[in-house]
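Data deposition worksheet. Section B asks for the primary sequence of the deposited chain exactly as it was used as input, without tags or linkers unless they were present during the calculation. Section C holds the resulting structure in token form. Section D is free text for depositor observations; keep each observation to a single sentence. Incomplete worksheets are returned to the depositor.
Section A, Depositor: J.P.
Section B:
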Amino acid sequence: MVRLPDLSHRLTQLVTVMMCVSAVWFSTSCNATNRNVTEPHTLAPPTKPAAKRFAPYEVLVKFKSGISQERIVSLLKESRTDVIAEIQQGRLYHIRILDDRSVESTITQLTSYPEVEYAEPNYRYETQK
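Section C:
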């Protein structure tokens, strides 16, 4: 014969298991009707408008060592740019494009000169908050 406290304990366990199974079944059956719907990821950070990755009309250009200051001035004038700042004693320049050409086309023109070590956009960096 089963004692009354054991029966009560067994019934409590059975009801708990049935409730858990029902909850799982209910949550999965609700999603079964919307299988083609893509839900947003709930842990994704809120999106903000995409900022430009680099400053418009600005380029960083580094010249090879041994190039005269006159030749650098000549190349920058020929590429229709103006110096914003000289960063590394006559080798690295922060320049502004003087016409409406894109940063990419200006970089292509600058890197075609054998005196240029590299040219790249003036990238923008942000710290995470």
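Section D:
Residues 54-123 form a domain with the Alpha-Beta Plaits fold (CATH 3.30.70.80).
Helices lie at 4-32, 69-78, 103-111.
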